[in-house]
């Protein structure tokens, strides 16, 4: 059944920027009507929040090559439990998604095994080595929503400029990882007094600004549509603001860089080792303000599953990354409960903006939009137990953390794909 009427709900509308008590009717998997005030019949939502499903950009799924870390089935389960109705997946798999054949495999696996929608990105260069451009036209025709080499930053600017020029001619989106690769190589934490006391290899925050400035100069030269996957330092914001005023540029930030800082590394806790590394508290606050004022467009989880063997190592050599599909919303609710963001502002960054940037029809509470919806209690407290996460890998920095806000139901195309156990 994908026809339903949901009443007595707090409608979180990121497009209108409103939060009102009302109702929503679904017909044939699409939103047919939305209204305010009371309405009889249907399913009473008890005054809880009804919002468009989250569109999470930069999700790493371990297929092909690392299925022991995450499969489309387990990623889909985790996404549904976290209110994510569309996963925009990364191409940095063990066999990179750099040919139409590999992309077709990923598309079929996602369609057949994931509870939620999958919108795959493809690599920008062959094997993500930065030497030879992929077949952007064929991959775009095969369903790639964007092109990125992820954290394998292309050092050859001539190759990158050619990729951008060709992508521009096809109207394709390029996703960059704004880090200067030589400075960033081997770094585990952000430079500063705290890092020096820990004796860990560091990278300056300026490496992000340098990488972003290089990319933006090429964007200005070629006119390509460009998205910076993660901005995490205040030093990068002035260049980003200048570019957004004149170019087709957007930017994202991970939920971990919005809610954690460099001190969370504490006693070499590797679940807090991320790429880029956690930043200063001043940088974190700057990122929150940049989301609020629209300088940063998208909040994402940068879901990066790692197995126990790659995390249970000395901090310097442990793998980077954290899972985030299930913790994205409750972690983001910290910003709402602290008064730094409103719910419409939050869902603008987690649903509406990523859907628009990556060509997805969802992310809205509007007639004619897909009924990709989540019902959640913004105030429900709980303590996270990583053992209960749906992901195959359990590498979350929020283990044992006290959080507020839980998804109670998730619908994709009007079909319920998740319901919390009472």
UniProtKB/TrEMBL annotation:
<dbReference type="GO" id="GO:0006221">
    <property type="term" value="P:pyrimidine nucleotide biosynthetic process"/>
</dbReference>
<dbReference type="InterPro" id="IPR013108">
    <property type="entry name" value="Amidohydro_3"/>
</dbReference>
<dbReference type="GO" id="GO:0005737">
    <property type="term" value="C:cytoplasm"/>
</dbReference>
<dbReference type="GO" id="GO:0004038">
    <property type="term" value="F:allantoinase activity"/>
</dbReference>
<dbReference type="InterPro" id="IPR050138">
    <property type="entry name" value="DHOase/Allantoinase_Hydrolase"/>
</dbReference>
<dbReference type="Pfam" id="PF12890">
    <property type="entry name" value="DHOase"/>
</dbReference>
<keyword id="KW-0378">Hydrolase</keyword>
<feature type="domain" description="Dihydroorotase catalytic">
    <location>
        <begin position="50"/>
        <end position="233"/>
    </location>
</feature>
<protein>
    <submittedName>
        <fullName>Dihydroorotase</fullName>
        <ecNumber>3.5.2.3</ecNumber>
    </submittedName>
</protein>
<keyword id="KW-0665">Pyrimidine biosynthesis</keyword>
<dbReference type="GO" id="GO:0046872">
    <property type="term" value="F:metal ion binding"/>
</dbReference>
<dbReference type="InterPro" id="IPR024403">
    <property type="entry name" value="DHOase_cat"/>
</dbReference>
<feature type="domain" description="Amidohydrolase 3">
    <location>
        <begin position="338"/>
        <end position="418"/>
    </location>
</feature>
<dbReference type="InterPro" id="IPR032466">
    <property type="entry name" value="Metal_Hydrolase"/>
</dbReference>
<dbReference type="Pfam" id="PF07969">
    <property type="entry name" value="Amidohydro_3"/>
</dbReference>
<dbReference type="InterPro" id="IPR004722">
    <property type="entry name" value="DHOase"/>
</dbReference>
<keyword id="KW-0862">Zinc</keyword>
<dbReference type="GO" id="GO:0006145">
    <property type="term" value="P:purine nucleobase catabolic process"/>
</dbReference>
<dbReference type="InterPro" id="IPR011059">
    <property type="entry name" value="Metal-dep_hydrolase_composite"/>
</dbReference>
<dbReference type="GO" id="GO:0004151">
    <property type="term" value="F:dihydroorotase activity"/>
</dbReference>
């Amino acid at each position: 059944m994908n026809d339903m009427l949901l009443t007595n709900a707090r409608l979180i509308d990121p497009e209108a920027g409103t939060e009102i008590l009302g109702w929503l009717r679904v017909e044939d998997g699409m939103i047919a009507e939305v209204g305010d005030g009371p309405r009889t019949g249907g399913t009473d939502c008890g005054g809880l929040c009804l919002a468009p499903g989250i569109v999470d950009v930069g999700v790493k799924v371990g297929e092909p090559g690392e299925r022991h870390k995450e499969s489309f089935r387990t990623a889909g389960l985790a996404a549904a439990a976290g209110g994510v109705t569309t996963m925009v997946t990364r191409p940095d798999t063990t066999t990179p998604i750099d040919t139409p054949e590999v992309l077709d495999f990923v598309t079929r696996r996602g369609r057949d095994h994931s509870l939620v929608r999958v919108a795959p990105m493809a690599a920008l260069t062959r094997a993500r080595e930065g030497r030879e451009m992929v077949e952007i036209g064929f991959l775009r025709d095969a369903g790639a929503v964007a092109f990125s080499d992820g954290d394998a930053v292309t050092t050859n600017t001539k190759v990158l400029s050619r990729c951008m020029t060709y992508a521009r001619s096809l109207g394709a989106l390029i996703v960059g990882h704004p880090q200067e690769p030589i400075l960033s190589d081997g770094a585990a934490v952000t430079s500063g007094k705290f890092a020096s006391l820990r004796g860990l290899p560091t990278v300056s925050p300026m490496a992000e600004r340098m990488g972003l400035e290089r990319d933006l100069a090429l964007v200005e030269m070629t006119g390509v549509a460009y998205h910076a996957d993660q901005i995490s330092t205040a030093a990068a914001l002035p260049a980003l603001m200048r570019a957004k005023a004149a170019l087709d540029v957007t930017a994202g930030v991970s939920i971990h860089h919005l809610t954690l800082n460099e001190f969370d590394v504490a006693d070499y806790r590797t679940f807090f080792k991320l790429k880029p590394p956690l930043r200063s508290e001043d940088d974190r606050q700057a990122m929150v303000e940049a989301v609020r004022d629209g300088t940063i467009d998208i909040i994402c989880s940068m879901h990066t599953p790692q197995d126990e063997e790659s995390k249970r190592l000395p901090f310097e050599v442990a793998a980077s990354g954290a899972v985030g599909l299930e913790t994205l919303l409750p972690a983001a609710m910290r910003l709402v409960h602290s008064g730094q963001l409103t719910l419409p502002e939050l869902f603008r960054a987690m649903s509406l903006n990523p859907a628009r940037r990556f060509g997805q029809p969802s992310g809205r509470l509007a007639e004619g939009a897909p009924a990709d919806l989540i019902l959640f209690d913004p105030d429900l407290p709980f303590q996270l137990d990583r053992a209960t996460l749906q992901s195959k890998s359990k590498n979350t920095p929020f283990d044992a953390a006290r959080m507020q806000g839980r998804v109670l139901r998730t619908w994709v195309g009007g079909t319920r794909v998740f319901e919390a156990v009472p």
